[in-house]
Amino acid sequence: MIAALENHVFPVLTRLSESKHLRAMRDGIVAILPLIITGSIFLLFGQLPGAGAPDKWGPVEQWLDRTSATHLIFQWYVVHHAIFLIPYLFTMKLMALYAAFAVSAALAKSYDLDPVSSGLIAMASMLLTVVPVNGAIPIEQLGGAGLFLAIVIGLISAEVYRRTEKWNLIKLPDSVPPAVVRAFSSVVPMFGMVTFFWVICHLLGVNLASWITRLMQPIEKLGDSLVAVIVISLVIHLIWLAGIHGVSVMNAIFLPLWMSYLEQNASAAAAGAPLLYVTSHPFYQWFVWIGGSGATIGLCILLLISRKKSLRSLGKLAIVPSLCNINEPIIFGLPIMLNPIMAIPFLLAPTTAGVISYLAMKWNWVHRPYVWVPWTLPGPIGAWLSTGYDWKALILFAINLIVTTLIYYPFFKQLEKKTEEGVS
Question: pTM of this prediction?
């Protein structure tokens, strides 16, 4: 089976992941992650228990002396908590605007063009797609809802820049500094792209964002389904078994969709509305890939208590990275890659965790993730923060850990038996 996948499936996926345009999409989205993390942190700050309603403090208010500084701080926070959401509005809520710049810059860089000029063309074009309402720009179109339009504009902007740059319509003397030459080389594509979107969106009144949204609706619904969770999990880990970084390959295809889910969930949470999507990126990060791809933190625990010295040594080496979701020491050191014994639990464990987590969140037993937190945090903390302080996320994480450990156990015991008799 692995041989057939290596010969027919993996080469196609690898070529897709190495495509300049898909790499630009992936690299552009990754480039704006610091903005998303910053916005997510301020979103958490603006939604601490008691935000907007002192009765949400529970017994805390009774424990505090009403004349104490802490109580005064709580009172101030209830009135002013929305101030903490301002950085969120100017970072995460403008995700599409930043993504247009980053995607275009990444593609331009792959063509050895000036990335800043290309990014500015895309950013100006993206802004032109937004039609003001009563003199104000609706910020919603520049968030997650406009992410796919931003990606398209980013790619088109870089391609237009690449083609017009060859024309060299504006000739400058050799004595002109290179920075000035690069700036003038972007005048034609900038004028062309801005004029095009001005005509389409403002003179003709075409709502491109609405068109893209309608086109993407079937994909969005399918991507947030249980079937998608199962298929994506199996494909990612099949790719890993061949020695290729499965998450990197699938990120090139699905990361924009997962980030769109994340921003729309964050917007709903900030507005106090129900969250629409289960499978935003933190869903996979904190509830499927626990301890890294393959949900291997349970396997790492089994290695630590193995009766074989060599396996215990590997467990000691891998436990700290696994707690921070880095499991290459196990994948390549055990190894799991191309290992027929460990291949089955490596596929089953994360897929089972994904099914359990999806159902728990779809049935609203656990809050759906809407906060992006750094992926190197220990798993329970990341799960708790990504769901907005939902303590039930800790229980779900523990259930997934127990289930995945049990899945690995019989295969781990078989691996122990096959360990060389000379190693004790």
Answer: 0.72
